[in-house]
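In response to reviewer comment 3 from the previous cycle, which asked for concrete evidence that the modeling workflow produces usable outputs, we include below a single protein chain processed end to end. The sequence was submitted unchanged, and the resulting structure tokens are shown without manual editing.
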Amino acid sequence: MRAIVQRVNHAVLTVDDKEISRIGEGYIVFVGYSDKDDFDICKYIVDRIIGMRIFKDDNNKLNKSLLDVGGEVMVVSNFTLYGNAFSGRRPDFSKSAKYDVAKPLYDFTVEEFAHRLGRVATGVFGEHMHIDMSNDGPITMILEK
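The workflow returned the following structure tokens.
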């Protein structure tokens, strides 16, 4: 599982010009899965993301977690995270999990965030999405297991 965590001031996700979800201060978490991933890996990554201390404290140090600041999360599926663009001109996505593997892992990831945070915003799995966001920092973290 790969996750790209982008700290944001706010974000709005739309599909076909229809608003699907929005968040205030927090993270957009782009997630991609391989055939080797399982629910334990998803749980581990969610735990790492929630516990990450990348919000500033009173001393202007990155020392506060999502829970400390009451931040929100938007989870967006992104199979292109396993794309290989180093051979040829067209990226190879063969390492990305197929729908029947990735969708249950995505659903579980969303459920884990919701269980821990009480609320989670999402994209629409497999759809073409547009995200209007205000990056904060920008601070971007990459997690993989």
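The radius of gyration is 15 Å. We consider this sufficient to address the reviewer's concern, and the full set will be provided in the supplementary archive.
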